[in-house]
Amino acid sequence: MPAKAPTRSRRAGVGQESEGVDGGVVRADVLNSKSVIEATEVGVMGGPNGGGADKFTDNGGQMIQVVQLYLIYWGAAWSASPPPTPTSSQITSACQTMIQGPYMPGLAQYRGLGRGFVRGSVVITSSNPPNGFTDANVSSFIDGQLNAGTIPVPDVDNQTLYMVVMPRGVSASNANFIGEHTYYTRSGQRIHFAWITNSGSLGALTTIISHELVESVSDPEGSALLGVAGTCSQGGWCEIGDVCSSTAAVDGVTVQSFWSNQAAQCAVPAWPNRVYPRIGVQWTGTVAASASQRWFTFNWPEWERVEWRMLPTVPRPGAPQLTWDVAIERATGNYLTYWITVTNLTSQPVPFEGRYCVLGRT
Questions:
Q1: Which of 235, 269, 294, 361 could form a disulfide with 341 if both were Cys (CB 3.0 to 4.6 A apart)?
Q2: Phi, psi torsion values for 124, nearest 5 degrees
Q3: 239, 259 Cβ separation under 8 angstroms
Q4: 94-100, long-range: CB < 8 A, 24+ apart
Q5: Model-level pTM greater than 0.85?
Q6: What is each CA distance from 270 to 6, 87, 129, 285, 300, in whole angstroms?
Q7: Domain housing 212
């Protein structure tokens, strides 16, 4: 839904959610349910702002699992001398910080949505947005840039979100709306985009960007994560940013809270308070003589770095016993599956432990 000029509410203190356990280990041909891994949700900053759990339901429509944000600064004002405040570089840098921090992993509760990255940015000075622009103006502008090759076409998985940032002083046709996301169809493909108005304040800009970002990934086409009847009072798509107005600074970037069904409140995610490194035995197994076997272990948060070691449990001096290879599957936006192939270098079966070490956040 379009972002309206909000009334800011007070921000409550920092809270920490409990950590859950999920997952398991499976060998290529045998289920092994003996061990599980830690699958955590990030904590939240902010207080209740709307009340009631399960305000939003997943209707099964399109989501953007790992967003590729492409920022487009439209208008000659972006290259003026002296440069505008904030500059396009400052906004892009703030977006990079926002996406790489804990803000996006807080969406994991919604179909495993995770962090993405800033795919790139460009300043377009060959035209200027009309004051009183419409969605059609923005989509036509984007389409023209795609045709001209000045911006990249969508990635192969259609995870690209084009975000057009307006110069200061340029308003939408409905001046009450300060940001919006939607889509249009190009050669049979849906192009997801958003536009952001500019008051000249970096904090205000990143607040609007964060609002449109979380709504774009969780409901890019108005068919995925939507409020139940009565959740929103305004018209249009009822999305997780529309019932929240509180803000917080995450890694120095101002962002808006969004609704968390898990926390039953508006939340600004924060990294959980965890100690690194964490080590443990994920599973035990045996590899037949001169053979290879593959295991996989799943539901590992993508924002943590994990190293693996396959340790023989029986001493047999004189020659190496095992080697292993690790492959990674990004099963959802926020969760990884590790596929580990263990090879026995000996002529006897080798029992071993599959050990992990979580080194820290990435």
A1: 294
A2: -110, 115
A3: no
A4: 94/202, 94/205, 94/206, 94/253, 95/69, 95/71, 95/206, 95/209, 97/251, 97/252, 97/253, 98/206, 98/209, 98/210, 98/213, 98/250, 98/251, 98/253, 98/255, 99/67, 99/69, 99/213
A5: yes
A6: 23, 27, 36, 37, 18
A7: 41-270
> 24 in a domain, yes or no?
no
In the listed set 245, 270, 295, which residue is the last one of a domain according to the structure? 270
The total of structural domains in the chain comes to 2
Element (H, E) at 202: helix 202-218
| Helices 88-100 and 202-218, packing angle to 10 deg | 50
Report the C-alpha gap between 81 and 326 in whole angstroms.
52
**CA-to-CA dists, residue 219 to 13, 50, 69, 77, 153, angstroms:** 29, 20, 15, 32, 21
- Kindly state whether residues 235 and 295 are assigned to the same domain: no
3-state class (DSSP) for residue 287: strand
Q: Which of 210, 156, 151, 217 is nearest to 183 (CA)?
A: 217
Rounded Cα gap, residues 59 and 348, in angstroms: 53
261 and 283 inside one domain: no
Please give the Cα distance from 41 to 273 (Å, whole number). Answer: 11
Distance CA 48, CA 271 (A): 19
In a domain, residue 333? The reply is yes
Torsion sign, CA atoms 12, 14, 20, 22: positive
Residue whose pair of structure tokens reads 């009565």 in the numeric block: 230
Write out pLDDT tens, residues 40-65.
Answer: 345 555 444 444 458 999 999 999 99
Task: Identify whether 27 is part of a domain.
Answer: no
Q: Which amino acid is at 3?
A: A
Q: How is 123-161 classified by DSSP, letter by letter? A: EE-SS-PPTTB-HHHHHHHHHHHHHHTSSPPPPTT--EE
Question: Is 287 domain-assigned?
Answer: yes
Query: How high is the pLDDT of residue 235?
Result: 83
Is there a single domain that holds both residue 165 and residue 51? yes
CB 164 within 8 A of CB 198: no
Residues 218, 331 within the same domain: no
How does pLDDT run across 306-347, given as a tens digit for each residue? 999 999 999 999 999 999 999 999 999 999 999 999 999 999
Nearest to 106 by CA among 15, 23, 13, 44: 44
Smallest CA-to-CA distance from 166 within 194, 134, 196, 122 is with: 196
CA separation for the pair 33, 294 (Å, rounded) = 15
